[in-house]
Amino acid sequence: MPPLARRIDPSAMPRYRRYYRDGQTVFLTLVTQGRRPWMSDPAACREVLAALRATRGLHPFSHHAHVLLPDHLHLVLSPHPGIRVPDLVGCFKRAAQAGLHRAGLASSGLWQGRYYDHVVRDREDFSRHLDYVHFNPVKHGLIAHAASWPWSSLAAWQARGVYPPTWGETAPERIRGMSES
C-alpha cells in the first residue's frame, strides 16, 4: 500500500484536549467507520437528520449548517451555555445509531470514535465554513451544482437570501486551500 494511503491506527493518535467556551460556534466533521458510504441511502440520511433534531432537544444548540455525504458529515453549530460539545457529539452518534438500527438500516459500528472540530473565530471564519459545508458535495464530485444536493442546509440559506440560486457552480475563493479534516 502506498505510504499516503496507509490507514492510521486510532490508538496511536494523540488524545488532544478540547477547549470550548459557552456559546462558541464550532465546525465539526464526523466520519463513518471505515469510511463506509452508508449515508448514500436517503433513508439513512433522514434518520441522521432526525437524530440531529433529537440531540438538539437533549443538548440544545443553534444549528447553522450541515451537509451529509456518503461517508462523512459536516456541521456548524453553537451549543447553548452549559452544553459540552463532546456530550452533544456522543448523544448524536448514539441517537443516529439507535434510529438506523430501529429502521433496519444498520447494526453497529457506524462512526469513527473521534471527530474533527474547529472553533469558529469570527464572522469571516463562520462564512468560510458555511461555504465549505455547502460546497462539499461539489468538491467531492457528487454533483455539479451545490443547490442540487438534497442533504445540505444550502436551500435554507438561499431562502433567506444569503446565497443566490446559482451559488456553488464554482468553488468560492475563500475556501480554496481548506482541506478535508
Description:
This protein has one domain (21-171): 2-Layer Sandwich (Alpha-Beta Plaits). The protein is 32% helix and 14% strand. It contains four helices and four strands. Strands 2-3-1-4 form a four-stranded antiparallel β-sheet, with helices on one face. The chain has helices at 42-58, 85-102, 123-139, 154-159; strands at 26-31, 61-68, 72-79, 116-119. The longest helix has 18 residues, at 85-102.
Entry summary:
This protein is an alpha+beta fold and 181 residues long.
Defining key terms:
disordered N terminus; 14% strand; alpha+beta; 32% helix; Alpha-Beta Plaits; 181 residues
How many structural domains in the coordinates?
1
Helix content: 25-40%
Gross morphology is: globular
- The CATH topology corresponds to Alpha-Beta Plaits
Return the CATH class: Alpha Beta
Largest β-sheet summary: 4 strands, antiparallel
Summed over residues and divided by their number, the pLDDT gives a mean of: 89
The total count of helices amounts to 4
Taking the alpha carbons of the first and last residues, their distance comes to 22 Å
DSSP strand content: 5-15%
Q: CATH superfamily assignment? A: Transposase IS200-like
Reading the helices and strands in chain order gives EHEEHEHH
**Category from helices, strands and their pairing:** alpha+beta
What is Rg?
Answer: 16 Å
The low-confidence runs, each spanning 5 or more residues with pLDDT under 50, are 1-6, 8-13
The total of beta strands comes to 4
CATH architecture: 2-Layer Sandwich
Spatial order of the strands in the main sheet? Answer: 2-3-1-4
GO molecular function: sequence-specific DNA binding; transposase activity
Protein name: Transposase
Domain Transposase IS200-like: 21-136
InterPro entries: RAYT_transposase, Transposase_17, Transposase_17_sf
